[in-house]
């Protein structure tokens, strides 16, 4: 699985996940879950992530990407409530 764009500042800084987690005072899983896309980070996490990677200037980009992801997730969750058909008034099969 490809790492979500933006989280690569850790590897660009030459840090492995274990050392990076220790630098932040986090569990290793708190580093691996956002990288693998299994968990969404918080804005506080993104700021700490960028600072720990020695790239505080990337915090704003990470926050922007986080807000975009959260917006996409909200939109996706609303889909079933709105229905999946393009024309919900039209009977199925017509």
Q: Looking at the structure, what is the overall shape?
A: elongated
Main sheet makeup: none
Work out the helicity level.
55-70%
The overall strand count is 0
> What is the percentage of strand-forming residues?
under 5%
Q: What's the overall average pLDDT, rounded?
A: 79
Stretches where pLDDT is under 50 for at least 5 consecutive residues are: none
Radius of gyration: 18 Å
Distance between the termini: 40 Å
Structural class: mainly alpha
Note the total helix count.
5
Please, could you describe this protein's structure?
This protein is an all-alpha fold and 94 residues long. The chain contains five helices and no strands. The protein has helices at residues 9-12, 17-24, 28-36, 43-52, 59-82. Helix 2 (17-24) packs across helix 3 and helix 4 packs antiparallel against helix 5. The relative contact order is 0.13. The mean pLDDT is 79.
Short description:
With 94 residues, the chain is mostly helical.
Characteristic key phrases:
elongated; single chain; 94 residues; 0% strand; mainly alpha
How is the secondary structure organized here?
Layout: H1 9-12, H2 17-24, H3 28-36, H4 43-52, H5 59-82
